[in-house]
Amino acid sequence: MLRTDAWLRRALAIGVTFGLVVAACGGTNPTATPAGPTVGPGESPAESTMPDLHGGTIFMLTQNEEFDDIDPQRAYTGEDLAFFGATIMRALTGYVYSDDPVVANGVTADMATDTGTASPDATEWSFTLRDGLTWEDGSALVCEDIKYGVSRTFANDVITNGPTYAIQYLDIPENPVSEGDDAVYLSAYYGPYNGTGQDLFDQAVSCDGNVITFKLNQSVADFNYTVTLGFSPVPDPAIHPDLVDTVDQYTLRPWSNGPYKIEEYTQGNGGHLLLTRNEFWNQDSDPVRLAYPDQWEVLFGIDAKVIDQRMMASQGDDATAVCYCNIQPENLNTVFADPQTPNPDFAGRVVSDYDPYSRYYWIDVQKVPNVKHRQAMAAALNRDAIRANAGGDFAGALGDGVIKPNLGQDYAETGMWTGLLGQPIPDSGDPDFARQLIEESGEPMPDLIWDYPQNPTRDLEAGIVVESLGRAGINVTANPIPGGSYYGTIFNDEQAHQFGWAGWGPDWPNASTVIPPLFTDKGGWNISRVRGEANQDFIDQVAVAIGELDRSAQAKMWQDLNKLAMERVYVIPTTFGLSQVIVGTRIQPVYQWAPWGSWPYAIMYVTP
Amino acid sequence: MVGRSLRQIVWARLRRDKVAMTCLVVLIVYYMIGILGPMVGPSFGLDPYAYDRAAISNRGGAPVLDFGGISAAHPLGVEWGTGRDILSQLLWGLRISLVVATTAAFLSTAIGVIVGIIAGYAGGWTDMVIGRLMDLVLAFPFLLIILALSNVLTDRITDLGVPSGNPSRILYLILVISSFGWPYLARIVRGQVISLREREFVEAAVAMGSGRRRILFTEILPNLWAPILVYATLLLPAYIGTEAALSFLGVGVIPPDTTFGAMLANSVNYFHAVPTYLFIPGTILAVLVVSFNLLGDALRDALDPRVTR
Fold it and tell me: Which residues contact A206 (CB under 8 A, 6 or more apart)?
């Protein structure tokens, strides 16, 4: 899934099986949410029993100065995907709006008439488009637009940082060129701007009327989940001659096919993003979005402390605002009586729920190749202090792997802290055992540098890392990196150091979106640099697991691989995160929507 | 009747100034604490790196006790989220702050005096070139440069053999602060030297065939001590503030070490919940800076009683 970053709560996620939906318990929700599996226009209580909920403006307050990427092929931050998916960026399939995480994580039709048809071996998938799909200028949205959107993913020299499932799964050979200028392209198809290999792409993705067919290079039983990420349409210049794709314009001004369109977008402090209604969007063509408010307005660059004060006070326009952020630690005890229960003043408008992310420290296995050294680092780390510093019970539970319990059948306890590394390790670390492991390694422990995206809380966390590893005789220096350039830095082999902070959540409810991206070079989140001879057996097992069609057999494989990765300490898991968020007094419904760990934007409204 | 030297006169005037003497005592105490605190602290159980899990809550990491966790074990409270002792952090942080400020003030004073004397005495082309150089340095956006060059230059310093991490970062702070601080003093000194070089005793020295170095440093320099001393005393608090500001902005020392600026930066996040965490380091920093400023003022008065306030 998605990346988490230094400042924002970003999430993508998965079934939150033990999530605590605080707000939904407190606030009676007059509209649609809980029970039904889908909230569609036809069955919406809004049209039958409730007063008209349309109208008003919902504000979003954020300390960010802009969105990372709105480009349909580049958006990859959970909260952004949820927001833009609900407003301007539709996909073939989507998720159900429900406060029940299990229901919400079910895939449902969006632009397609159903959730897709697979060939018996799941190597070919086809989707039929609905009638009445339009772009914001009123022109028809056709199959070729989706095909064109997918093709942009392959131009990974210019379309960067987005999901790459199209490259991973579509039946197009990998790029045979290994050196020189062409090496930037991962696939033999270079994307629509260069055009090399266009015939290969046309064979893999074909349009027949309003049916789009994807030919895959392997069996993918849940490809209808995959198409929620990076498979959204972009106007095909061949069909819309007045819309020339200059690559970058969609980063600031994507062409809308949802119920809203971008009216104005100014970045930076004091900037805002204003979404107004897209008059050409047709409710009958959209089974997912209710589009209650007339406008959405995102206000950028507000200090996190100011946001908290405004949200807690909820005066004026702030009553119809949502916080695109987490509640600051110092206010948690004001808002919550305990991590499950809001104080009476805030009942019904705050949520404390497991987010989709596992937090962990990656260890570069090329720079720290000795397994015993990595195990010593894990044994020495004071995870209890890290959790306390992050907020204690508000920060979530201590993790034991990269697969979170909310992944359901893919999760099993790894036993990392109860004997997997040789003996049980207390939460506050065991420096003596760490020294013993270093001794067993037969090599002196190298000096280490810990990379982290800087913020005040993580500055203290850095102190904990330095101090607790130091107790085991491991010399660590902290290396703060500005939040915005953090992931760019640590993916650079030259600039990254031995270990550092990270977080990851699944893209859809299958650990195939966790283990392969984190620990193999496919999928692009291999900060641990798991490659080379010593790890080849692991990589081979991952390839077998990806191809396994029996879901429960596959789940067992993910459990085993998660355990093996922990035994080799590719990462040190720290916490399975919990996050706390708040909305104004006139916003409903209030719960954490499980698929992206976000607000349920598409069905939110202002109470009359 | 015994004549008194300038030093004795100034000292006698200072002795009569109660504010100045108080400030002097305060500063001596600060320096003693800065030097001795980290040496004797551990024997009193002070450790800025020790985590006290029992002192902070499981729910959000707030100090368990009121007023930021003030107790017998932690007289000034504990840090939010970790339970580290604030008194210990102040002792260790004070040392870093004083080292940075004192060294940087000494360096910029030395550079400023030497450059100022040379420019003032030589005049002509030399004066003009140095003058433009000072203009150039003064025109630099000091803070931006420090922020922008931080990582690059810190790495360079590490490459030169200084231990990586905080030693490199502290050295970087000292070097950049002093390299941008000297022109102010250099201008003052240059002006003084220009008026001094035409005086009779300088002409006498020249007539007697004294070398240029002797004229500059034996004849002229002693007459400049007053402005230099005053300026250096005012530079110190400014640099303590600069170091705090840079640490606040994240250029200063990195964890687990801390300084005033880093503590203030951190405490701002918890201001509403634990105001003492901001006020205690803030007050101690304010007392230090105010003491330096008042002492500098008093020193100027003592050296130059013609200026009345």
Answer: A147, A212, A213, A215
Residue A170 touches partner B, C-beta closer than 8 Å = no
Measure B27 CA to nearest chain A CA, in Å: 30
CB B250 within 8 A of CB A483: no
Contacts of B273 in chain A (CB under 8 A): 330-331, 333-334
**Which CATH number is correct for A354-578, 3.10.20.30, 3.30.360.10, 3.60.15.10, 3.10.105.10?**
3.10.105.10
B267 CA: distance to closest CA in chain A (Å): 9
ipTM, two decimals, is: 0.72
B-chain residues near A460 (CB < 8 A): 79, 81-82, 255, 266
**Residue B185, amino acid:** L
Mutate to test the interface with A, among B47, B49, B51, B267 (most CBs of A within 10 A): B51
The three state secondary structure string of A328-375 is CHHHHHHHEEECCEECHHHCCCEEEEEEEEEEEEEECCCCCCCHHHHH
pLDDT mean across residues, chain A? 85
Domains of chain B: 6-50+85-303 (1.10.3720.10)
Inter-chain residue contact B250 with A480, CB threshold 8 Å? yes
Q: Where are the domains of chain A?
A: 354-578
Angle at the Cα of B214 (from B211 to B216), degrees rounded to 5?
110
Q: Is it the case that residue A162 has pLDDT exceeding 70?
A: yes
Per-residue pLDDT tens for A50-86?
Answer: 678 899 999 999 988 888 778 999 888 888 889 999 9
- A contact test, residue of B59, B89, B152, B169 with most A CBs within 10 A: B59
Does B221 reach chain A within 8 Å, measured CB to CB?
A: no
When pLDDT is cut at 50, 70 and 90, the band that residue A8 belongs to is very low
Residue A265 contacts residue A243 (beta carbons within 8 Å)? no
Dist CA A319 CA A303 (whole Å)? 18
Separation of alpha carbons B182 and B188, rounded Å:
10
- Record: contact A389-B265, CB cut-off 8 A: no
- A95 half-sphere exposure, CB direction, 13 A CA radius: 36
Tell me the pLDDT tens digit for each residue of A440-462. Answer: 999 999 999 999 988 778 888 99
In contact, A16 and A528? CB cutoff 8 Å: no
Beta-ladder partners of A606: A587
For residue A605, the cross-strand partners are A588
pLDDT per residue as tens digits for the range A188-247: 898 999 888 899 999 999 999 999 999 998 888 889 999 998 899 999 999 888 888 888
A357/A390 Cα distance (integer angstroms): 14
Measured distance CA(A602)–CA(A198) in Å, rounded: 36
Q: How far apart are CA A604 and CA B185, in angstroms?
A: 63
Inspect the interface and report whether the beta carbons of B58 and A393 lie closer than 8 Å. Answer: yes
C-beta atoms of A393 and B256 within 8 A: no
- Interface mutation vs chain A, best among B169, B268, B269, B277, most A CBs within 10 Å: B269
Inter-chain contacts counted by CB atoms under 8 A, chains A and B: 107
Quote the tokens at residue A53: 């909920």
Residue of chain A nearest B50, judged by CA positions: A467
C-alpha span between B14 and A137 (Å, rounded): 81
Token pair for A67:
């969105």
A351-to-A85, A337, A356 alpha-carbon distances in Å: 21, 12, 14
Please name the member of B51, B270, B273 whose beta carbon is closest to the beta carbon of A385.
Answer: B51
Q: Is B266 close to A460, i.e. CB distance below 8 A?
A: yes
**What is the pLDDT at residue A7?**
36
* A319 in B contact zone (CB under 8 Å): no
